[in-house]
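Aim 2, interim progress. The first record below pairs a target sequence with its structure tokens.
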Amino acid sequence: MSPFQDSKPGRIVILNGAPRSGKSSIVEAIQADFEGPWMNLGVDTYVRQVTPPRYRPGIGLRPGGERPELEPLVPRFYAALYASIAAHSRLGLNVIAEFGHHDAHSRPLGILRDCARQLSGLPVLFVGVHCPIETIMRRRLAEGPERRGIYIDVSADAPIPVPVLAWQEEVHRPGIYDLVVDTSINSSRDCAEQIRHVLDAGIQHPTAFERLAADMP
């Protein structure tokens, strides 16, 4: 028997939002300011540090038509990542993880529902990270050369790229969250404090993930 088997489950915070909406900055604030270890098990870590380069989907960890030969693997990638999140929580470790759940092209709600079911019985706070497209574009245009080519190039003289618009339109469907924060009007630390306030007050049931897992509206 593991000596940690009787540990109280660690809390889990899942951030969901479009690229450049400010999720990573909230992760950094939580890791810096919250009590105890908060393990970063988000999609950026999984894609950039764990997944072999030739198996990385074109835009985040999702099936979306960019790499059709990889689509059969993406649900398995998600399942493995969420199983890891669950394992950390069951060993008493808190987890903060950022995602861009975007199933619109091939499996509407399928991956998100399956992920929610993987965390059944664990204390999960699902947070929608909102940010207007104008702010996201300003952030992209201000990026230094070290970030260019990671996602998609943008230009002040060109229309907003179709993938950027797609993220903005699809990432918050169905929009079932325990908390919504807006990084265009609040700093990352302010958003983290909103999350802390909800955690301290106690997560209300049914949680967003409980509703998603049960196909509740």
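The second target in this work package is listed in the same format:
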Amino acid sequence: MNEILSIKDVYAAYGDLTVLERINLEVKEGEIVLVLGSNGAGKTTLLRTISGILQPKKGQIYFLGRRIDGLPPYEIVNLGISYVPAEGGIFPKMSVMENLDMGTYVTKARKKKGERLHFVFQLFPILRERKDQLAGTLSGGERRMLSIARALMSLPKLLILDEPSFGLAPKVVSELFKAIEQINNEGTTILLVEQNARQALTVADRAYVLENGNVVLEGNSNEIANNPLVKKAYLGM
């Protein structure tokens, strides 16, 4: 498999506070790669750095062989990376359909808008039913589905998801993970940060564990799931 994302010796900080130190991580085409870590470990900072919201202090980030650290977020989206933050990701005073339209501002996506709409409505049928409803009036689960659907409208090669199951009911979480697998099966590579380690490890190919801004473990999902530290800290075993 070809490497789609490569992070080399990346440091990131907010002012004088260093949050990530010498991060090395790779994602291959077609994979679901999971990043685990406790609150404050640097997971969201990592995703913000990849997507250009935060510029790294040191190191390089490559996407499909092109160096992207230093590029603004809109250019990174145009290259094929879509980031769905843990909170937000939608325009609450716009309708579901208008939100989905906002995802097609990338030129290549506008040409395939009908095709993408068909895909996201198949993936999340409730959004078709709610297409004229204001996004702010949706349930928490529906809002999360809309934020993912909007990101998919831009035809990403790499979809970055930050805590997609956070605060959702177990039934909705189960539906969401099925959708994540389907998105991946349709050809989209996924980088996933998720606090529901048990469920996330069942869909991921490989995983990294972050602690205090450092990668302390990496391996395939089985290796990570069977690691004694992971069992104790993340799986409650």
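The longest strand covers residues 3-14. This observation will shape the mutagenesis plan for the next reporting period.
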